[in-house]
Amino acid sequence: MKVAVIGTGYVGLTTAVSLAMHGHEILGIDLVAAKIAQLRQGKSPIYEPGLEEALAQMLEQGNLQFSTEIKDAREAEMMFICVGTPEASDGSADLSYLLAAVSDIASMQQPSTGKRVIVIKSTVPVGTGDRIAEQLRGNDGLYVASNPEFLREGSAMQDALKPSRIVIGADHEAAFAAMEQLYNGVNAAKVTTTRANAEFIKYASNAFLATKISFMNELARLSTVLGTDITTVAQGMGLDSRIGPEFLRAGVGYGGSCFPKDTIALLQLAGQHGISLSILDKVRDVNTTQPAWFLERLEEQLHGVAGKKIAVLGLVFKPDTDDIREAPSLKVLEALQKKGASIAAYDPVASAIVGAQFPNVDYVKHPAAAFRGAHAAMLITEWKECVQLDWKEIKASMAAPILFDGRNAWPGNLLKDVGFVYTGVGRS
Ligand SMILES: NC(=O)C1=CN([C@@H]2O[C@H](COP(=O)(O)OP(=O)(O)OC[C@H]3O[C@@H](n4cnc5c(N)ncnc54)[C@H](O)[C@@H]3O)[C@@H](O)[C@H]2O)C=CC1
Ligand SMILES: O=C(O)[C@H]1O[C@H](OP(=O)(O)OP(=O)(O)OC[C@H]2O[C@@H](n3ccc(=O)[nH]c3=O)[C@H](O)[C@@H]2O)[C@H](O)[C@@H](O)[C@@H]1O
């Protein structure tokens, strides 16, 4: 099928490449000319394992092209909207990019097939698709479908090619049929429903995942006092298939471009309807205070951090991405600096971008260099190279052998044997 993908960020680019891999004819469109120029040369503007190779392959095969001009998509039967829906000042989702894209499409001529489906992949408040469909009523042959995206950064290609499920919301047989044809051959459970249900499934899923994390983070605070090990507790819990092993990892909190903004957008939507989502409110509270709670443990141990050197390992919000949106590291750097610590930080991809916000941090090129002369080291993002280290050498290079593992990813018992004082999140 001829498909246009509007917005070539994390979701748009992954969607464009994966649909091209399924044999469709894809045109990726973005307003940012520099991005399009880079993409045309097979260079990915974002870091995502496997993406650049697949991009180059699809460009070579000829079923993926890029443009800054939406008019180049005049023959597209499907228009995927993958633009950002960031947090507005009141917490709601800012729909300005989405509405601009819809109005661009509405002003285009229909393709020669006479039918076109606008597919909303961006995460949008429940009711958005219906409102857009209402506005477009009268444009014959133009349909609106909701098809939320569930991929995770860091494994975006894998998730796009083997999705956990495909959720399709629409109100017309023509839209369902087109979506069915598009995803024919993708082996995944499908949920076909109304647009509003599809939109709600997306927010409810992200809110639930965020809830799992904050629940474990709050239990980790108790575990610290009880002297228990939250990772063992999580392991034991996860063996119950009703609970499941995923998303039970306590840490310094969730970050990223989605959980923070989607939880507040859902709270905002509920508030507009007079409903209080008190659990979700608490989920956000726990997440907001989690980095500070962990830093307090560090300050207690060091009797303050002023004038001390602290190593910070990992800056992006999770490994295998270059995204620092809402990354817990930003809160950690800010608090440490405020309290007068000197900081050496390591991240394989994000030093330059974090450096623009925190110029006084010493960004080192190798993880081991961050530990040199440090009075304590903190793991904030569990990059492989920040976890697999020569611990004897590291201990010898530090001013004090104190480790704070914000992701429970360092080998605590082994480290104690080597002579470190080890503190994890909810385990010591
Ligand atoms: N990042 C993620 O892992 C996931 C994101 N989502 C949702 O998908 C949506 C997109 O997220 P990201 O890909 O992270 O956003 P992003 O911010 O990385 O990319 C958005 C892109 O859209 C482009 N754009 C904006 N308006 C445009 C227009 N009118 N025409 C053409 N291009 C335009 C921007 O230049 C940018 O390149 C959001 O609603 C997000 O909540 C959903 C699942 C996963
Ligand atoms: O809507 C979205 O944008 C996406 O949001 C998340 O994906 P993502 O934010 O890319 O990454 P996750 O793997 O979910 O991690 C989010 C944050 O939670 C943290 N996390 C994750 C799992 C866990 O057990 N504990 C924990 O602290 C991670 O460190 C990270 O900071 C969801 O997992 C995706 O399904 C969804 O499509």
Task: Return the average pLDDT rounded to an integer.
Answer: 97
Count of individual domains: 2
Using only C-alpha atoms, the radius of gyration works out to: 23 Å
Residue fraction in strands: 5-15%
The residue ranges in which pLDDT falls below 50 over 5 or more consecutive positions are: none
Specify the structural class.
Answer: alpha/beta
Which homologous superfamily in CATH is the superfamily of the largest domain? NAD(P)-binding Rossmann-like Domain
The percent range for helix content is: 40-55%
CATH architectural name of the largest domain: 3-Layer(aba) Sandwich
Task: Please name the CATH topology of the largest domain.
Answer: Rossmann fold
- Major sheet: arrangement of strands: 3-2-1-4-5-6
Q: How would you sum up the major sheet?
A: 6 strands, parallel
- What distance separates the N and C termini? 55 Å
GO molecular function: NAD binding; UDP-glucose 6-dehydrogenase activity
Binding site for substrate: 150-153, 202, 247-251, 255, 318
Family: Belongs to the UDP-glucose/GDP-mannose dehydrogenase family.
Pathway: Nucleotide-sugar biosynthesis; UDP-alpha-D-glucuronate biosynthesis; UDP-alpha-D-glucuronate from UDP-alpha-D-glucose: step 1/1
Core attributes:
single chain, alpha/beta, Rossmann fold, binds 1,4-dihydronicotinamide adenine dinucleotide
Written overview of the protein:
With 428 residues, the chain is of the alpha/beta class. The protein has two domains: 2-193, Rossmann fold (3-Layer(aba) Sandwich), CATH 3.40.50.720; 206-424, NAD(P)-binding Rossmann-like Domain (Rossmann fold, 3-Layer(aba) Sandwich). Helix content is 44%, strand content 14%. The chain is built from 17 helices and 14 strands. Strand 9 (309-313), helix 12 (328-338) and strand 10 form a beta-alpha-beta unit. The structure holds 1,4-dihydronicotinamide adenine dinucleotide and uridine-5'-diphosphate-glucuronic acid (UGA).
